[in-house]
Amino acid sequence: MKHNLCIVGYGGMGGWHANHALKSDVVNLLGIYDIKKERSELAEKNGIKAYSSFQEVLDDKNIEIITIATPNDIHKEQVIACLAAGKHVICEKPVTLSSKDLAEMIEASEKYQRIFTVHQNRRWDVDYLAMQKIHDSGQIGDIFNIESRIHGSRGIPSDWRGMKEYGGGMMFDWGVHLIDQILQIFATEKMISVYCEFDNISNDEVDDGFQLTLRFDNGARAYIEVGTYNFISLPRFYVQGKKGTGIITNWTEPCHIVECTHWHESEVVPVETAAGLTKTMAPRDEITTRSYDLEKPASDVHDFYRNICDSIEGKATQFVTHKELMRVMKTMEAAFESVERKSVIYFD
Questions:
Q1: Which of left, alpha, beta for 256 (phi over 0: left; psi -120 to 50: alpha)?
Q2: Cis omega (within 30 of 0) on the bond before 94?
Q3: Which domain-ending residue is among 65, 93, 119?
């Protein structure tokens, strides 16, 4: 049995949800609602019903699930209204702009006994899944450093994403994804500190890039960087373990691993570099290392909606939990505080 879905907001991500819903094996797209007339007309041109108002969506008893794909600053009021109307709710990221607002949304979910979650679709990225596999398998030993980067060269889109009042900026746009991925990898570790710096190269109102360092109680470090003024991109992921190193150049490539098989420090021959010799930086050889590419993990983005529908039917628990949402939100708040205070923020 398919569950009836409506999408509020038919912009970029709203259209993405609609296209995938039309191919879904678990949801049936009843329609969309958007405040812009041209988007409603586009939906109808694409054979999708366009509701005339948000209230009409809330009043339609045939709708079971509502996906919110509107600007960040209005998520809270729309989510709570949908929950109060008896609908299960999927909200685009970031779920809202503060942990206080998120707590009210979670409270509404519990009050009205309806599922409320966030579309953290980047959990299905194969580059992230490779990092998760490397961490969990222990194949390069205990992980002590992960670097996660997204680089572009076009600045912030010239829409609400560049405006503070609407929850714009790269921390809310891409940071929420990359933080969620790192916190999934270090799901059992306690975060002890956050340090962040913002870039304001092409936009003075919100961050158009940032550098964020997270430290965990097991000694591991995660470095997250988003840039929108990079005409040469650094690798998507770089990971170091006590038995090797992994690198993913971009999200289309597999993870390349160099695994240390033997130490052999006593037999290192110095090499000449630039104006001198070095033994410390002498390259490894095939005798002491093993190099290989990891097979790309399997991934199906439709599993997100499958999980929601299974949760509605009592067959599963929601994949993106309230506790995980709050952990990400508090990390972002600590990042903003770190920028404002120009200091490291420590957690108890």
A1: beta
A2: yes
A3: 119
- What is the reported pLDDT for 165? 87
- Mapping DSSP to helix (H, G, I), strand (E, B) and coil, where does residue 103 land? helix
CATH number, domain of 28, equals 3.40.50.720
- Give yes or no: residues 29 and 172 share one domain: no
Are both 148 and 238 inside the same structural domain?
A: yes
Q: Buried b vs exposed e over 330-341: b needs ≥16 C-beta within 10 Å? A: bbbbbbbebbee
User: What are the tens digits of pLDDT across the range 207-259?
Assistant: 999 999 999 999 999 999 999 999 999 999 999 999 999 999 999 999 999 99
Range of the domain at 181: 123-255+294-300+330-346
Among candidate residues 91, 115, 112, the one with its CA nearest the CA of residue 101? 91
Q: Is there a domain that residue 274 lies in?
A: no
- Whose tokens are 């299974």? That residue is 310
Lowest mean pLDDT among 22-36, 108-122, 155-169: 155-169
